[in-house]
Amino acid sequence: MKMPYRPIMLSAALLAWGYAPAVLSQTVQTHEQASKTVALRNVAVRDGVISAEVVNKSNHVIRDVELLIRHAWLWKNEFQPGEEALGRAVFYDVKWELRPGDSIPFRYNPSPPLPSRTDGYFVTEVSVAGFTEVIPR
């Protein structure tokens, strides 16, 4: 699935030795840069329900992965669309910690469910919106 250019927020936690406090920094990356660290695979969408795997492609622990799920509504007749704005977007948090090379499956079921209508259809996209990469000192 080709995704448009979007900046990705990356929080890199730099862990210090011993009892020293952790140092936190944030970096903005392009989708292409971030996809070298965290990726989605086996993405499937059926009736707005998404199943996929989040993959850690980096050499560091990844956690706090945040996904952006967008349900865009397309009218069959764009020249005379209806009154309702049916599209929606939601951020979905993957709460697991991923070691280098690990993957974790997830399933997202929209709540409330997407309406079933005959005057248009939904196009659903999922992308990585942010994550934390733990880089030891």
Quick description:
Helix content is 3%, strand content 56%. The chain has one helix and eight strands. The strands form two sheets. A five-stranded mixed sheet has the order 2-1-8-5-6. Strands 3-4-7 form a three-stranded antiparallel sheet, with no helix packed on it.
Compute the separation of the termini in Å: 35 Å
If you average the pLDDT, what whole number results? Answer: 82
How large is the count of helical segments? 1
CATH class of the domain at 38-128: Mainly Beta
Q: Estimate the strand proportion.
A: over 45%
**Percent range of helical residues:** under 10%
How does the major sheet shape up? 5 strands, mixed
Number of strands: 8
Radius of gyration computed on alpha carbons: 18 Å
Which parts are unreliable, with pLDDT below 50 for 5 consecutive residues or more?
1-21
Description:
The protein is mostly beta strands. It has a domain at 38-128: Sandwich (Immunoglobulin-like), CATH 2.60.40. 3% of the residues lie in helices and 56% in strands. The chain contains 1 helix and 8 strands. It has one helix at 31-34, and strands at residues 8-15, 23-29, 38-46, 49-56, 61-75, 88-94, 103-108, 120-136. The chain has a 5-stranded mixed sheet with strand order 2-1-8-5-6. A hairpin with a 2-residue loop joins β3 and β4 (49-56). The two termini are 35 Å apart. Mean pLDDT is 82; it is low at 1-21.
